[in-house]
Structure formats: C-alpha cells, structure tokens
C-alpha cells in the first residue's frame, strides 16, 4: 500500500517515483489542510527606508508548524506546495494575515506596507485578482498598503499573460516587486515589459565583498532608478553591509542586521520602539 501511495503521489507531482524522497512525501501529505488546521502563520521582516530613516515596509514570510514534522522552512515547503497546488490556499492565508497586519499597523499609528511573496503559478490562478481584492476590502485598508513580490522558480513563460495579470494588479493600486533579482530566473529583457514598481537585489550581491560586488550593486541600482523602480537590498547582516547598501543608493534595506522576521504582535511592538540611531553603521 505504501508503494502504491508513493507512486501515485510521485506521478501527481510530475516526478519519477525513484527521485521522490520520503521527507518530501510527508510534507506533501501534511500540507493538505495545514491552513484549515491553523498551522500556517506569517512573520514580518522590516525594511529600513534610507531616506526617511524609518520602517516603511515589511516582507511577509510564511511559517509552518506541524504536530508531526515540527517547524518546516518555506525553502522546503513552498516548492512542494507549488507542485501540489496547496500554494493557492497558503498564499491567500498569508495575504489575509498580511492585510490584518497592515490594518493593525495603520491603527497603531505606525503604518507599514506589507510585501507578500507570490509565485507566478499563484499569480496566474483564475480568480487571484478577485480573491485579493476581496481580502483587501474585508480589511478596509488602502490597496497601497500591500504589495506583491513576484518570485519565479522557472524561466517566465506566457509573458504576455503575466504582464496583463500584473497590470490588473497595478490598476488596483498595488505595487509589484521583482524578487531575487540577479540570481532568479527572470532576465534583464523582462524589465522592458513587466509593469514593476520595485526590484529586490538578491542577498548574494551584498554578501560578496569587494569592488566587483559593489560595482554590480551600483549598476543595478542606477539601472533600476533610471527606469523608475525603487530598489530594496536584501541580506544586510552587518554594519558594513548597511553602509554599502546606503552608499550605493538602495532605497530600502532588509536583513538580520536591521531585524529578523517576527510575528504580528511582536512586529507592532517593535515598530513603536524602533530608533534608526540604534543601527550601527560600519
Ligand atoms: P525571499 O522572498 O527572498 O525572502 C527572504 C529570505 O531571506 C527569508 O527566508 C528571510 O528570513 C531571509 N533573510 C532575511 N534577512 C536575511 C539575512 O540578513 N541573511 C540571510 N541569510 N537571510 C535573510 P525564509 O523566511 O526562510 O523564506 C525563504 C523563501 O521562501 C523566501 O525567499 C520566499 O522565496 C519563500 N517564501 C517565504 N514565505 C513565502 C510565502 O508566503 N509565499 C511564497 N510563495 N513564498 C514564500
Ligand atoms: Mg521575497
Ligand atoms: Mg528575495
Ligand atoms: Mg531569496
């Protein structure tokens, strides 16, 4: 029976059975119903705005705690959720929790925009735009307090449809960021047509020390600014990297040196105590 289940799952996930790992099968099974069981929560990581010296935005990051599997990293479960289709349910739940955070931050007097990771497969689902529109309305927040952060694990296909879908989202007043720029599967040519508002430079760049890294970051920042995009530098872990991100002109900085991702209540409390001067600059 185990073998049959194994083969059936493997076939459904489009992989030859011999390449399936038991761990992946357990995750695949446990992901079904995880949202309904309340196992998916969202952490929020602050982004430091260089010009205003304040926290203007946060990134929403899914967290999953399962009774059998314990804490599972999104690095592990998101790709599986993309394959088995649970990503739609998880993505919408993270979007709901993000709108709730945006609403509560507004009420607390420290409003932040929440940037939600959306893979192309979720973006292109029928009903995606209607679903997020309804969630935004239910939370009575302005659409510019949420953004989507496009992530792509494969090279973009059906680019015209993706552009149309993104334009529909932009028309609602929602910003669109391109995640992991420079290491992801989206190439420079896509910048001609994708209706973006922002680029996120992958942390691999800031974490490479020396003149080559700085030249590449500086070039990406200037290019993005010339086409009217804001720039977020990810992976700021040290005072030195904070200084580089600032000096090379990134608009916002994100990383462990500023703050780690934290839960809804902790984030609201953290925002009220944040003082830019506490960020040491190397
Ligand atoms: P990402 O969107 O590029 O998110 C940034 C990741 O870098 C997060 O990992 C964050 O915790 C981590 N990070 C932040 N600052 C630093 C730093 O200074 N140094 C280092 N080394 N890492 C840092 P996390 O939360 O494990 O998420 C990993 C990836 O999983 C995300 O990468 C994103 O692609 C995906 N993901 C997370 N949440 C969601 C979600 O709700 N939906 C979808 N579709 N994908 C998600
Ligand atoms: Mg992201
Ligand atoms: Mg990223
Ligand atoms: Mg990444």
Automatic annotation (TrEMBL):
<protein>
    <submittedName>
        <fullName>EAL domain-containing protein</fullName>
    </submittedName>
</protein>
<feature type="domain" description="EAL">
    <location>
        <begin position="24"/>
        <end position="275"/>
    </location>
</feature>
């Amino acid at each position: 029976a185990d073998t049959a289940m194994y083969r059936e799952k493997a076939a459904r996930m489009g992989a030859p059975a011999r390449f399936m790992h038991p761990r992946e099968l357990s995750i695949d099974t446990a992901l079904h119903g995880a949202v309904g069981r309340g196992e998916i929560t969202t952490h929020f990581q602050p982004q430091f705005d260089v010009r205003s010296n304040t926290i203007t935005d946060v990134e929403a990051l899914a967290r999953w705690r399962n009774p059998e599997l314990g804490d599972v990293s999104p690095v592990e479960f998101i790709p599986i959720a993309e394959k088995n289709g649970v990503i739609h349910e998880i993505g919408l739940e993270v979007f709901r929790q993000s709108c709730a955070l945006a609403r509560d931050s507004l009420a607390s007097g420290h409003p932040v925009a929440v940037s939600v990771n959306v893979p192309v497969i979720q973006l292109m689902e029928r009903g995606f735009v209607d679903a997020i529109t309804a969630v935004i309305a239910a939370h009575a927040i302005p659409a510019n307090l949420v953004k989507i952060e496009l992530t792509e694990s494969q090279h973009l296909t059906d680019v015209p449809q993706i552009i149309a879908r993104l334009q529909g989202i932009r028309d609602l007043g929602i910003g669109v960021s391109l995640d992991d720029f420079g290491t992801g599967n989206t190439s420079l040519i896509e910048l001609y047509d994708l209706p973006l508002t922002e680029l996120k430079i992958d942390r691999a760049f800031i974490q490479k020390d020396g003149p080559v890294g700085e030249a590449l970051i500086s070039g990406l920042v200037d290019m993005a600014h010339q086409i009217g995009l804001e720039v977020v530098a990810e992976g700021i872990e040290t005072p030195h990297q904070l200084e580089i991100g600032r000096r090379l002109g990134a608009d916002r900085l994100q990383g462990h040196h500023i703050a780690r991702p934290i839960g809804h209540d902790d984030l609201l409390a953290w925002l009220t105590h944040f003082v830019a001067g506490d960020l040491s600059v190397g």
